[in-house]
UniProtKB/TrEMBL annotation:
It comes from the Bacteria. This is Acetyltransferase AlgX (SGNH hydrolase-like protein). Signal peptide: none annotated. GO terms for biological process: alginic acid biosynthetic process. It comes from Rhodopseudomonas pentothenatexigens. One of its GO terms (molecular function) is transferase activity.
Amino acid sequence: METLTTSSGRWLRRLAAAAFVAMPALTLWNLAVPSRAVRIGPGLVGVTQEVPFDLSLRGFVDGALQKAAALRIADAMPLRRTLIRLNNQIAYSLFGEITAPGVLVGRDGELVQRSYLEEYCSRAIGQADTMADAAIPLLRDIQAYYRDRGKLFLYIVTPSKVADMPDKFTHLIACPSSPQARAELVPAYVARLRAAGIDVLDLATATHAMRSDATAPFPRSGIHWNDLAMARGSRQIVDAINAQAGRELLPPFSFSATVSRPAEGRDRDLAELANLLVAPIDYPTPKLTYSHPPCAGREATRIDAALVGTSFIDPVSEVLTEQACLTRLGQYFYLKLGRSRGGVRQNQLSEAELRQVRDVDLMLLEENESLIGRQAYLSLLHRIVTAP
């Protein structure tokens, strides 16, 4: 037995020595041949800015060169991914903290991005009127541009997770706004727009009304609405478009839902961003099966449509394209950042490409309730359609 113990200890020491020698060697290899780098563990989620080398004397004196070199060496370490995830896991498991910038842990393990919570907690009485005063002239001109040409226009407000379940998050930061100010912002804003003649679809209020359902509209470790809430919203969009057209322009679709776990895709986006060893994704989410009439020969397939909005509208674009037969729909991400059409993604659109929205038959403009009336693309779209 003593011989076996000694033998095992010898092999462990040899293994440790081999690892001690291998890690620096593999780090040098990764620096020299980054295209064939050796990495241990799954990749990290999130965007990092690569610091450029400043080979000047100034770069050496102010430390920029040394900082860039240190970051490159650290990134080349084979175990970096695993060590980062281990560190994050310890912080989460022992202290309930997420180290990803801007991600907070609320009650019952609900994750949220800080920016949404800060917006919710800063809502004030009368703020809806200020926002509406700024947005109405822009929306009125945009809507008039399309309507005057016999086209369709619909403005859509999508929901925020914090507004849907404020009790999970408002204790995390100073939250001076009153419950009345938080609750009235979207309804008051929408009412002002409707009074001004803007065709508005308030999916935020409609989604928050789903709170009585067995499945909440937002996943525990996700920031976007789940498939069920999104599909219900998409169906309301179809109904609103058909009501404007005065006929069944887009075919109706139906769906059935089943509960699935663990969470996948968009239902776990914040959990992925946390970069843990074991992501908190073992919770139920709805998965849908759609049915709709065949698209062949339908008028919807001949409609040039544009959907301008935020990341909340990504899955809506898929549903409208595949289920409502809007096969020529172009989705514009924050208008100028990119366009997806026919399964092709194009980034950083030119001015000429942006001007193509002037010629569409159907314009859908979406803003999330966390930034209603304040999105830069609202002014940009206004400039595009009002320019000579």
